[in-house]
Every structure is written in C-alpha cells, then in structure tokens.
# Entry
Amino acid sequence: MYYVSKVFWLIAAPTKALVLISAIAAFWAVLGAPNCAAWLAAAGACGLVVGSFTPISVALTIPLESRFARSDSQTPPDGIILLGGSGVAGVAALAALGQAYPKARLIFSGLSATNPASSKIFAQHGGDPTRIIYIEPRPRTTSEDAVYAAASLKPKPSERWMLVTSALHMARAVGCFRVAGFQVEPYPIEFRTDQTHPFTAFAPGLEALEKLDTAGKEWIGLIAYRLMGKTDALFPGP
# Structure
C-alpha cells in the first residue's frame, strides 16, 4: 500500500491532476476531438486559476488545523509520541514535554526518527537522548506509525499517550492511533494558518498551489484511510 499510495499521489495531487487534464486536452485536440479538448482545457484552466488566485487552500486547511486543540489535562501522560516528519518544531516540542513530564516515555517514530540530527536537536533543546525509544521497524506511513507503535509499546486502555505532529496532519494521525488501541491526547504543532485571522496569510501564485496540494493530500488521505479501515472515522474529532 505504501508504493500504491506514492504512485496514486503522482496523479491525485490537485496541481498535478490539473496539469494532467490540460495534457489530455492537448492530446485530444491533436486527435481531432475539439469539443472534448475545449471542455477539458477549460476545466484545467479554471482549476489552476481558482487554486492560484483564491484562498481555497486556506479554506481546506482551516478545518484540519482547528479540529483538535492541545490537551489541557493536568494528569501526566504515560508516554509522548512524536511522528516523523514533524521537523525541528516537533523535536523541540518533544524535548520540552519530556522536561515537563519526567516520567513519561518518549517515542520517536518514522523514517527520519533515527537521523542523528534529530537527536542532536533534541539534546540542544534540553532533552535527554537516553530516554528516547525508537519504533522499529521504521514506519513509512501514518498507519504504520500506529501499528508498529502498538506492537512495540502494547498500550493499555488505562494509559494516556500524547501525540505530537503537525496540526494539519493531526486528524488522520489520531484516527490511526485510536484504531491501534491508543488513548491519545493531541498536541498539534506547526500551524500553517493564524487561528484568529487565517486568511491573512494567503499569497496568490505558486505558494497557493503548493498549499492546495498539501491540504488536498490530507483530505484525500482521510478518505482513503477510512475506506481501508485504518481510521475510526472519516474525520476523527475530539
């Protein structure tokens, strides 16, 4: 499924799909089907204009990033899981949380988890590298993050696990970890929009298209994961 998803995303990303539609329109025009070509070309052009010059990417991002607030529970968690791909912000957050909860298990998960740079950044932010538990084999997807973590950590219903990943990705991650048997509390990071004035960050052009692809990937991922039974709901919530 990992390789299938990679191949699928080559054509399913919104901007790539629009380019593909435009290429098919040109091909049909060459073959002598001007009506079909015109409709396809119009659809591709409209899609690119909407994606580039309207804040549709922001509109798709807002519900994802506002789905979960950070847990306000005062009870220390049994463990804190950082998903791979969270970057410096994620490693810094794990280090801070590790200091706040000295008895919690600290988990690095994902392809980039064993990167020496991550451990170095963790230490630079006051974290203790000896407390880190790495998930093996290294997960490649969010679903594998949850499945491999469950196999390694064997979570109990009474245990609470804090999950650290980007706000954009949190809904899919929470759904996967719930299916795997974790009682998760979200700790979203790396917000792409201002929660009080989300549309102020909109910038037309290439940046808008890149953000459209990023948000589109999460929505498509939510649908695909639910159809495959990898999440507990189409749009997991609190």
In short: The longest strand covers residues 161-166. The radius of gyration is 20 Å. The chain has two domains: 2-65+203-227, 79-189. Residues 35 and 113 are 52 Å apart (CA to CA).
